[in-house]
Write the structure tokens for this entry.
Amino acid sequence: MRSISFVICTIQKSKVDHRLSEVLTNLVQQQDIRFEIILVWDGRRMDSPPVYPGVTVIAVDLVSISEARNIGGLAARYDTICFLDDDTFPIDRNFSIKILDVMEAQKLDFVTCNIHSAGEVMSGGAVARDTDLDERTVIVHMWEPGLTVRRDAFVKTQFDATLGIACIHGSSEGFDFGYRLLRNGFKGRRQASIFIDHPPLDTANEYRVERAFFYSLGNGAVLLQHGYYGTYAWQITKTLARLLVSLLKGDMVRVRASFVRSLCMMIGPFLPRRRGRIMPTSFLAPRPAVSDGPQVQAVPLEPAR
């Protein structure tokens, strides 16, 4: 029987995280595959990590999402590793079989998935067709949730521990990882027929500004690091145009977010890169189970008491 390792990284919340429970409940329904679930748990109380049935929990102190993924990936037992965010899960129960079939048939080293999302502000748009990844397309199509990679490719490349949540440069770790996979000679594709459920983004004003701050520092730094000068200039120009339009419309929430984004895009490349040391407040809040995707009939996987 074929096998796959699922790696999920999460941060301790103030209350039971119902969205994470929903993710695990759906994930254990995978069919016709031998699998393991590794949960890298970033907690404030290291002596009391959660216990979920059938889940290997690795407790860590404050690290970046990238470093947590590296810890989970290196602990994986199987030759194929699927990375999921703690609020995302595969739509299909035969997800593992489908993605392994694609990787074997097309001789791929890594695959990114399509997105299923709804809400006022979606995490991203769905794609209509498969896209082979190269240094031009990877910037748009390297989406981390559901990223499935052969173990040897992961071990050789790994995520940059100075990028992602908990770092000052709080984003673009997926794009950076995909770019370096390609530079290391590995072959990838975004697969339109394989979907990952992702909840809508928080629309609260403070979340938008916080997201713009951390994400834009990472965006700017990684774009210039890898020589995407034209894309970098276009992103800043587009953000400044959005700021002007929002100002004319009197949309002060978007004005603030656009101002922060444009400023941070400019200063991000010049700030020293550090490992995880700061946790955005929006990532510490408890979350409901909000998926409008297919629901499995199963007892939710709450932490054991």
Q: What stands out?
A: The chain has a mean pLDDT of 87.
